[in-house]
Write a structure and sequence with these properties.
The chain has one helix at 120-123, and strands at residues 2-6, 11-22, 27-39, 46-62, 81-84, 90-94, 112-114, 129-130, 139-156, 161-174, 177-190. The chain is mainly β. The longest helix has 4 residues, at 120-123.
Length: 192
């Protein structure tokens, strides 16, 4: 959902809420941003614009989903320690009471589990976890600051209605790292 207010003839201020659902992946996200839209040129029926702003991005993962850690099955028993492997979406699997005092492995040549549906940006931030009895992992969420930039074009359909194809990059920051997501939307607008 977008709400925009024209501040001047060339500048508009927009509040944007965008939900991202990936069916069957065990992951979902929500973007909430405030953005300045600057009209680059104005034609009789079209007005291209540039967008820049900031806000937050919240990513949530159902770790019990088969697409996430629910796929561990009987490979690794309850109590097995999972430690993120730096720079990958994989986890080093340590069993039998193996002691490890850090939050992340920098090198690992033992058994691993790769969560291909979760980027290293999030997997590395999960820290040490233990395989639960019964596979009841639960949800994990991250809320991070984000910048957005891109642009689009406002195409007038009538005097009141318009369509806006829009492409933006969302750069999410967390734990000294960043993740870039692209969004492509087509909106329908109404002028009051």
């Amino acid at each position: 959902m977008n709400l925009a207010f024209d501040a001047t003839d060339r500048v508009a201020v927009e509040g944007r809420g965008l939900s991202v659902m990936q069916r069957g992946s065990g992951a979902m996200g929500f973007e909430a941003t405030g953005t300045m839209l600057v009209t680059i040129a104005r034609g009789p029926k079209a007005a291209p614009y540039a967008a820049i702003g900031g806000g937050i991005y919240r990513a949530s993962f159902d770790l019990g989903s088969q697409a996430m850690f629910g796929a561990l099955g009987s490979q690794f028993g309850p109590g097995t320690m999972m430690v993120p492997i730096q720079g990958t979406s994989g986890f080093g699997m340590m069993s039998g009471g193996t002691a490890f005092s850090g939050n992340m492995l920098t090198g690992w040549n033992g058994p691993t589990f790769d969560s291909s549906r979760m980027s290293a940006f999030y997997a590395n931030r999960l820290g040490q976890m233990t395989v639960p009895a019964g596979g009841q992992w639960g949800m994990r969420s991250f809320t991070d600051p984000a910048l957005t930039f891109g642009g689009g074009i406002r195409l007038d359909v009538t005097e009141r209605f318009y369509v806006t194809p829009d492409v933006r990059a969302l750069v999410v920051f967390g734990s000294g790292d960043r993740l870039t997501r692209a969004t492509m939307t087509v909106g329908l607008g109404y002028r009051f």
